[in-house]
Amino acid sequence: MRTPITELLGIEHPVVQGGMMWVGRAELAAAVSEAGGLGIITALTQPTPADLVAEVERARRLTGKPLGVNLTILPTIDPPPYADYVRAIADSGVEVIETAGANPEPFMDLLKGAGLTVLHKCTSVRHALKAQRIGVDAVSIDGFECAGHPGEDDVPGLVLVPAAADALDIPFIASGGFADGRGLAAALVLGAHGVNMGTRFMCTVESPVADEVKAAIVEQGELDTVLIFRPLRNTARVAANEVSREVVRLLDEGGEFADVRELVAGSRGRTVFEQGDTEAGIWSVGMAQGLIHDVPAAGDVVRRVVRQAEDVLRAALGADPDGSGVDQQRGSALSR
């Protein structure tokens, strides 16, 4: 299934693994890349830039296919040395950097000079257009359904993706709410060139999170998430638990960040993923968990998502069961 994003990234399938804190490690990223998608290592999961380079080297021993690194630049309790991480990514030998949060413009010369393809994550068309103007190679459009930070506009993917397709000249992928081949097919028809999946890949064999977390994702539905930090204009979608509900209560009653600081500490979220106590802190998960019913290998996710998308598109286009003539019909349907 070739699209502008597969050509740009040098991958076989238009499926990208999201860069997730405490989740995007070598084994998961390598498994996705080896299956033909793009696996992404999360930079800030590694305690130092040197550790990040070592993690990339571990992934390289598992696959020779393209790899990416995610760097999310957001206000945090203890800000990491972002510039040092950028330099480490540029020197690591990966092909792609996924930036998110702050504007990556200050780092563009360094990243482009190192030959990296820059994929920037956006939650609105206006931000995507700004990213296009500063020279990123592609963008990831995050709809309101996504885990983590969906922005403040509350626009779901069904509207945001075609709006982006109408406005952008560069390739883009759709993110937020995607977990199977039906979603990939829908994204392509809406004008995207692929999908980014986070929660789906978090619930795979190679994902480093505890089995209890994976079991919770399988059990929970699309209603089992909570939006926190809304009064602070820094909205984040996380799993519904006692901690996240308490954060919402305190802020809705007029509290400030200082009042929830300890509840939302990253160390508590890390405890969730490492020890499997889903009530230990806040942890990101998307509405797509309502579409997840198993814990397969990451490579199997890539292959079956693409296979299901092809089947769905064949059926929608009225192609013959054996697929004859599908490529031509699919090409016209996906060329928007």
Structure description:
With 336 residues, the chain is α/β, with parallel strands linked by helices. The chain folds into 2 domains: 4-208 and 294-333, Aldolase class I (TIM Barrel, Alpha-Beta Barrel); 211-288, no CATH class. The chain is built from 15 helices and 10 strands. The strands form 2 sheets. It has an 8-stranded parallel sheet with strand order 1-8-7-6-5-4-3-2. Strands 9-10 form a two-stranded antiparallel ribbon. Helix 6 (125-134) links the parallel strand 5 and strand 6. Helix 2 (26-34) runs parallel beside helix 3, helix 2 packs parallel to helix 14 and helix 8 (181-190) crosses helix 14. The longest helix has 20 residues, at 298-317. Mean pLDDT is 94; it is low at 323-336.
Helices and strands, with pairings:
Elements: H1 4-9, E1 15-17, H2 26-34, E2 39-42, H3 49-60, E3 67-73, H4 82-92, E4 96-101, H5 108-113, E5 117-122, H6 125-134, E6 138-142, H7 157-167, E7 172-175, H8 181-190, E8 195-197, H9 199-202, H10 211-219, E9 225-228, E10 236-239, H11 242-252, H12 257-260, H13 266-275, H14 298-317, H15 326-333
Helix pairs in contact: 2-3, 2-14, 3-4, 8-14
Organism: Serinicoccus hydrothermalis
Keywords: Flavoprotein, FMN, Oxidoreductase
Protein name: Enoyl-acyl carrier protein reductase
Count the helices. How many?
15
Strand content: 5-15%
Q: CATH superfamily assignment of the largest domain? A: Aldolase class I
- The H-and-E topology, N to C, reads as HEHEHEHEHEHEHEHEHHEEHHHHH
Major sheet description: 8 strands, parallel
Distance N to C terminus: 15 Å
Q: Look at the structure and give the CATH class of the largest domain.
A: Alpha Beta
Low-confidence stretches: 323-336
* β-strand number: 10
CATH topology of the largest domain: the name is: TIM Barrel
Strand order of the largest sheet: 1-8-7-6-5-4-3-2
Number of separate structural domains: 2
Mean pLDDT: 94
Shape: globular
CATH architecture field of the largest domain: Alpha-Beta Barrel
Helix and strand content put the structural class at: alpha/beta
Report the helical percentage. Answer: 40-55%
| Oligomeric state | single chain
Pfam families: NMO
EC number: 1.3.1.9
Enzyme class: oxidoreductase
Protein name: Enoyl-acyl carrier protein reductase
